[in-house]
User: Fold this.
Amino acid sequence: MTESATELDTPDLDSCVRIGSIVSSNSHLDYVVEIFKERDCDRPPELHEREFGQPVFIKKVIDGTEHAVMGVIYDTKLVDPDQGRTGPRLAQDDQAQFTPGYIEERTTLAGVALLGTAVVTDDRTIADPTHRMPRWTLEVDDTVYHCPDEVTVSFHTVDGQIQLAYLDRLIDIAGDLGAEVIVALIDRLRRMLPEDDPNQRVLDVVEQNIEWQAHERRGVV
Amino acid sequence: MSGKQSVVGTVAGPGEDPNEFVFVTPADKSIKTGEFITYTVSVDGENRSVFARVTNRELIRGLPDGFLADPEVGPDTVAATLGVPTDDTELYRLTATVIGYYDTDMTTFANPRQLPSPGTPLSIAPDQQLETVLPNLGCETDSADVTELDGTAHLGWLLNRPSEATNIHIPIKEFASTHLAILASTGSGKSYTASVLIEEMMRPGSRASLLVFDPHGEYDSLADIQGHDAFQGEDGYDPDVVYYDPERLRVRISELDIGDVMAVLDNPSNRMQERLSTAWRAMQRRESRTWGVDELINEMEARYGDDDASVGALEWRLRRSIERNDLFHPEDNVPLDEIVDPGQCTVLQMDTLDRWNQQLITTVLLRRMYRERLDAVRDRDSEIGHPIFALFEEGHRFAPASGDAPSLDIMRTITSEGRKFGFGLGIISQRPSKIDQDVLSQCGTQISMQIKNPNDQDAIKNSVEAAGEDVLRELPGLTPGQAVVSGDAMNTPALIQVRRRRTEHGAESPDVIEAWREAYDQRQREPAQSESADFGEGDSTGVQSLD
Assistant:
């Protein structure tokens, strides 16, 4: 167990909010998650719990050991099969329950990029985080959980130092919004770390570099 | 000196210049600019070790500058955060210029006209090989024990190598015959380097006949050579160091040239010049070499009459300029056999003479010695039957670029002709731009030390043939005791650290702070004086010392 994780009031991994389930993937590291709505679960995620840059995890038992596969929401997409249809409608707006199709099919999809893995411990937190590429494939219908900030910090802490070693892979997957995902992650980490933590300055340098590169790529500078 | 050479880099391809190639090394193989490396190439069916000098070094792979944004956060920390490996990531791209392989027949470097092909492994040139091939020692192998050679001067060791790893022994006969220039700004160790050379030349292996023209009295400490263990020969050789103080420096009047006399005289008229030169020539035709102003004036009066106005004016001028100057004497002369002798270093201390007298005595001595050497080579009677080497501290004083010195002519003659007559000059100066370009360009071997003044750098560039761009580039960055040796004594220029002298050095600048403090204490010890009464007849003179 890492230092920063023990200092914080570590939440239980089992009581985390469910965000959605996996519906498809674009690559080994890039999954599409359908966000849960009112009818899909007891407590659908609130908007801020599934926001852009939100870390998430998926529980997987590998060879008898429970692992958490860590990921981050790097993109979202709205799906409305009704969009573009301009023909007459049978149902009225106040009679949704009689509507056979489209309204229920409106969904929000989120792109989740995998960052790494960690072992789930007996006290329902994580240990041994690694930022190497996860080797295991997730399944359709796997539940994606909201990752509490405390767990996010402990996932990013290796030997007492903040690490974002997945950064280059994440930029590749997230594409145009890569810089923004990383900045969002860094913001989250910075909020959780004490003001005088030496890692704060390291994060500043990393953020500066990422933003500068993005600005360069986009032709701002 | 190890036989096994470890590979330090790999050739990447040709460089910009025809003799340049580029190679890549990892960070742990730290190769400095100026380092000598070798590779093997087949020339005429024979494998040759080709030497090359590293001229530039740049980083081609390393952490981006953005990682350096916060001085308090090390780039390694940022790299660790991003999971970037930091061990041995740096790759360097180095440029090297081919010097050539050592041609044992020509005993110098020969350019193979062939760059190494990409992928050729490169190694650091072994110390012993460099010791043999860098100086112009004429060895017939490319790896000899140079310490066993006679007539070499151990000047120091290669700067890029550990202390005393690659010792540079330069052949004394080369610089003693084709002249030497030691160019360095004040305080960078030029007289130290000169002393090292003098020491080497006085060792039993060389037993040189040396003459040092010392306008500042900086070479006092050379006396320690006498009786010093390092200078004793097995056959009982012990070098002599003779000091000639200004009182013993004399110029016999008959040795002066008419030109010298004209230059000493105060603005002589045309008529005076004509009378003087006629009489001077007549005097020089005489058998006797010991005549003075009196005899000269008698001669003039005999020719032009007692009451000739010009002769009268000349008499006054001659008496003022020549007779009242202790330097000139009708009979006394510096005896050449006293000042030049094999195994003897004579230091002519001229510190109390004014510049003009320094130049004049130098002129006359050089002229006399040159004449003797000429006679010796032409099998005539000569006082100096062996080659000699004269070192000039403050060389710009004796061969000024302004042309304003009587010694310039003879200096020019010796530097251009002296080689044939066994007369070598060594010019030491901190202002190369103020040395006559003809003289400087004839100095075949150069030891250049730190020089920052751009004019002086230009002077070296313009007059020193062997000074390549890479030599000149090093000059501003050298620190005291570091030097670039180039020219006839070397097969290729090398950057060296001048070795320590065997005897103590004496030319350090006096400690002003110490002097001030002592002077102040001295003042404090003097009895206090009361201010003299002021009678209102002017300003108070304040406290006055009574001595």
About this structure: Residues 265 and 332 of chain B are 21 Å apart (CA to CA). Chain B has a mean pLDDT of 85.
